[in-house]
Write a structure and sequence with these properties.
The structure holds 2 protein chains of 2 kinds. Chain A is an all-beta fold. Chain A has no helices and 11 strands. In chain B, the strands form 2 sheets. In chain B, strands 2, 4, 5, 9, 10 and 11 form a 6-stranded mixed beta sheet that branches. A 5-stranded antiparallel beta sheet of chain B has the order 1-3-8-7-6, with no helix packed on it. Chain B starts with a strand and ends with a strand. By secondary structure, chain B is mostly beta strands. Classes of the chains: A mainly beta, B mainly beta.
Chain lengths: 112, 115
């Protein structure tokens, strides 16, 4: 088992509502990441964390916030969901340089 | 500006033949390169990697070649099998120290291996 899980796996929400996606890891890794995958764009980094309460922005951070109050949990919040945030969201944790990241199975979010 | 480029959105090959997936990068500070494989409805999984101090790394049917002067790497799959059909992402890392290897991904190439 990869030691990293995401919840929920699927979610449909309405425009303007807040949404929180959860990532949970059991490997005690310091670094965690949120990516989104969209057709024609590949995987793009939203936010990442380098420790409890330590986070930084990625290349597509507008409209998103994150929190990390415990090593094992990294939360991604869409404060007011928009249709452009319909995507598949992947959480990842950092291992060694040789293996890069271990990814979760993804959350498919649809904003209607 | 895209720092990691996979210029072929898709590739189709026959079972048993060689698959060659290409990747170009622009950032000369990248020091580690990885390939990930992704099936539908699953997260990407690590496939193979190469350090910038090497020019080749082999793991079973998978070989990655790195040409630093051309800022180009390629993934060779020999022989290709139908189960290899997936999206392949090229990724590059600029070591920030510790275990924080922030990866930059290409857009991916959809490989289809036909029986």
């Amino acid at each position: 088992d990869a030691g990293i899980t995401q919840s929920p796996r699927h979610k449909v929400t309405e425009t303007g509502t807040p949404v929180t996606l959860r990532c949970h890891q059991t490997e005690n890794h310091r670094y965690m990441y949120w990516y989104r995958q969209d057709p024609g764009h590949g995987l793009r980094l939203i936010h990442y964390s380098y420790g409890v309460k330590d986070t930084d922005k990625g290349e597509v951070s507008d409209g998103y916030s994150v929190s990390r109050s415990k090593t094992e949990d990294f939360l991604l919040t869409l404060e007011s969901a928009t249709s452009s945030q319909t995507s598949v969201y992947f959480c990842a944790m950092s291992g060694t340089a040789s293996y890069g990241y271990t990814f979760g199975s993804g959350t498919r979010l649809t904003v209607v | 500006d895209q720092q990691v480029k996979q210029n072929s959105p898709s590739l189709s090959v026959q079972e048993g033949r060689i698959s060659i997936l290409n990747c170009d990068y622009t950032n000369s500070m990248f020091d580690y390169f990885l390939w990930y494989k992704k099936y539908p409805a699953e997260g990407p999984t690590f496939l193979i990697s190469i350090s910038s101090i090497k020019d080749k790394n082999e793991d079973g049917r998978f070989t990655v070649f790195l040409n630093k002067s051309a800022k180009h790497l390629s993934l060779h799959i020999v022989p290709s099998q139908p189960g290899d059909s997936a999206v392949y992402f090229c990724a590059a890392s600029e070591n920030s120290g510790g275990s924080n290897y922030k990866l930059t991904f290409g857009k991916g190439t959809l490989l289809t291996v036909n029986p």
